[in-house]
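Could you join me in thinking about how sequence relates to backbone shape in a protein? Label the sequence line and the structure token line clearly, so we can match residues to local backbone shapes. Once you have written the record down, we can walk along the chain together.
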Amino acid sequence: MTSTCLARATTSGRAGTRCGGAGLVNKTTAANIRHVLPELLAENLVRGRGLLCLALIKSQAACPAFTDVFAALAAAVNSKLPIVGRLLVVRLALRVSRSCARDDKPQLAAAASFVAHLVNQGVAHELLALEILETLLATPTEGGVEVAVGLVKECGATLHEACPRLLDAVFDGLRGILHDGSIGRRTEFMIEGLFAVRKAQFRAHPPVRPELDLVELEDQLTHQVELSGHGLDPETHLDVFSPSATFLQDEAAYERLKRSMLGDDDDDELSSSDDDEAQVVCGDDEDMEEVTMIKDETATELVGLRMMIYLTIMSSAGAEEAGHKLLSIVRPGQEMELCAMVIECCRQERTYTRYYGLLAQGLCAVDQAYQAGFEACFARVYATAHCMDTTEVRGTARLYAHLLATDAVSWRGVLAGRVRLAEEDTTSSSRIFVKVLFQELSEQLRVPMLGRRMTHGDPAVRDALFPTDSAKNTRFAVNFFTAIGLGGVTEQAREHLRACAMVDKIRLILTRHVI
């Protein structure tokens, strides 16, 4: 009976650490990190340090823009539990070594960026960053040089302060690569940009943002790990469940440690008295406390929601799985944010994948609020097409082509009042958008069906695509669709042009007769 209870307690404790730790890491932002940290320390991080490091590495790889936030979180935990910080540095060092050996640039770039910010926070020693740079520049490749440039940008200010001569040697190596001309022009421009950043004393890349400076320098413990060091143990056994005979004793010991950590911090930064929701104002004449509510306008919840949506979309195996997870995250009234994030994730892909179309189609089938959200987002996307590059325009247009072809959104809601195919109402970017949109529709619906949808369907859609207010605009639309290989959809518009020409001819004859 005792062993059964112990197994259950161990299992529930392990599951709680896994779910709680990963969830807290995923929702951490620069605005709420001071509030997330006490919750994270409340978990048994001694037993769950492997899971915490795994969550930090996975979340940072999925969302590189939050690397400095994850590094600040790791630095704060390291100041209380150095065993966690050392395990994280060891795993990142091994990850860099394996990525270099496999020539895996995305994983290498993510791990190197994390190391750079840990160096800025004082968790990892500067020599680890310099050793990575030496490895990348020893046999320079375009991918390796790009990663090295990014690493120097992110921790160059720290390296310049700690070891300026070694940093000068790195720049000498980059200068030699630049003079050899053995790499592409794009990488050469990146190196030249890095020299400009160095000339400006790395002012555009400060080591630590003020809101992420959580640990005093004397409280931080720096771990010196060699990239080429043998015998580094990633302790992967900590990532899986293993029953422990001393589980209850370990929990009691960590409970005492947790009280000491959180108790000491009550008067510190982590439990600051500057609450986001209320402040106490003392009157001069009376010894009374007045509570004034302060509205939080930092959009902390919105940033956290977007981050959770992004991580869910990127980590899901299929559209159905992503849809189920996202519907459990998004609350009523947040549908527009989800639609915008699906479009944004689709835009960031190098090539369009049908995964985003199926995900958007499934959301529209669940609730009309998502249908209205995607229709409203189209107006913003089409109006800002000139701000996107060609890859982003193509990806977004193909996403909406899928939605229109499957009737997930209405043609009237997307096109009417938003698209007007006339010379003065379009730009080169918007014309590329319309071109990709209708070429993709022709592949899915075939030209005859597409022509019926465009000309024999809703009059508002027909007038948007083939304006009939003047023969000039109609002729422009006809020429446009003919030029992109869809002349078959212009038959009705051509008949309208012939009728207009006949009317003009009759008017001219009548005018001459009257004269």
Observations:
- The chain has a mean pLDDT of 82.
